Amino acid sequence: MNATNYFQSYEKYFWLWEDEAEVLAIKGGSRIVYKEELIPILESIDEKGLPSFGSILLTMIAINKTEVNSLDFVYSILSSLKFKEQYIDSYLKESLDFLIILQSLPDEYKTGKRKQILFTTIFENAHNKIKSSTSIGIVNVLREKKRRTRFQKLNTLTENVFAKDIKIIHLLSQKYTSIQSIIEAMGNLPEIEEALLPQLDTRSTTEKNYKDFVEELMDISQTFQIGALIKPIWAGFSVPIFNAHPSEQPLGGVSDLSNKGDFDKLLISEFANDDLLFMSRLANNEALYFRREMPPVTDKLQRIILIDISLKTWGIPKIIAYACSLAISKHPKSKSESKLFLVGDTFLPLEYEKASQVIDGLQQVALGLNAQKGTAAFLETYKQKGQIEIFYITTPDGLKYPEIARLLAENHSVFRYIITTNVEGNIHFYKNKNNAFKHLQTIKLPLGKLWQKPLKPFEQKHIPYAHDSKEVYPLLLPLPNKRSRLIPIGNEVYFVSNKCLFRIVNFGNQTNKKGCELVLKNVPANSNYELGKTAKGRLLFLSFNPQNREVIITDLETLQYAKVFF
Predict the structure, then answer these.
(1) Alpha helix (H) residue ranges in 330-455
(2) Can you give the pTM of this predicted structure?
(3) Which end of the chain has less Cβ packing within 10 Å, N or C?
(4) Which of 367, 438, 372, 431 is nearest to 399 (CA)?
């Protein structure tokens, strides 16, 4: 399979190339997708192999927003084809049911990054896929205009082409029978209707609700790191809580005795009087109360949390900053409304009621070295709108810029707290006291421990590096003739051969005591390899495949591994 065959268009089929192969459109209908929009979607699929191109286009038509129902138009084209009745009467009708389910998905699952996640999910184990290395090469051809224009030539449509496309969709219809099954396969992203969202003034603050939110974050891979930090921050930092009426703070003490107040605040000694004397003291305002009566205070501070997303905060500091902001705004005892804003070159509001909104916020970054422009723009817009208190979250380096220091000094009355985060997991809390920021406390988060996901039982069966208990290896194996680059680490030497990692063992110069020990099997082929030790002396093995940009790091002691695609 080459790129020309994969992207080839056909006569009497439902799609074709237009505008010098820059646009894909329904034949006689609306646009499907631009080439620039298509490439990122294909790149999200090609690592595990591409399905047929027609099946991808059918799913795109289903999730596109159009004034007319494009699915009905495409169905009329396909049903008019003169192929086997099995394909038309059975496969095509059931495929249409699946496409209608895709069409009914909430809009939040069909836009942005989640659109790529949707395609990756439904085509992960698709039927009759092309191998990964070929798929990556096919997608790269799509960027070359000269080769792309060849796709516009219309070939004669065969039954084999139609069968490949429709069979993939038919098998997906059997796997995903409802909207909820697709959402759960995408990673349990939340589906909350706006009408069902609780109002801020009646929002429940029980521990159970917030526990569910934290667990929801931890169940999703994109927000697991944030969710794992929220509870340790709750345990380590006493988040300031608003009182309903600041003038009614329970100060206690004799100075608060008064002859006015609520009956439930009466001194216990008042009940020692007989009934007549007790009623007389109440009538003449002579009875004593624990707390003096205060006029109600209606003014209420608006809590604002500003998160610095400038260049200095990228990576781990930004993840910890998001966790701090959610820990403050989602604290179980907090009855106040908190608003979150991202500040960089400008300022953007951050919604945090849904896990999907938190994921969207993580995608936002700024290219400036500091957040002075965004913070100044926010203050100019919101400072005059009422009483506010600001939590400013940045890095220690972010506070060293003169423009930031000047901005904080000029607006010290609204900046109540400053929180700094760093790559080691340290969080420093500062409070504005007498126009100066006083250090309150420091939390040191064990990031390695908190971010280590426990392996589930079924996952251990699929670890390609675990030794099979049924296989027995001798203590020393003979040195193979073909060996890759030797990898020295300390006083030991390792090498890769036949998709296995070996360690050379040599007891002196004795020939009968020289050989190699099998350390790891199922090592990826055609990769670059390296070994290294952590600060605790644990040996890590790294393999990098330049073809699909896959990096795998394996702990040689526990055989646990981490895998990522660049």
Answers:
(1) 355-362, 372-382, 402-410, 447-450
(2) 0.41
(3) C
(4) 372
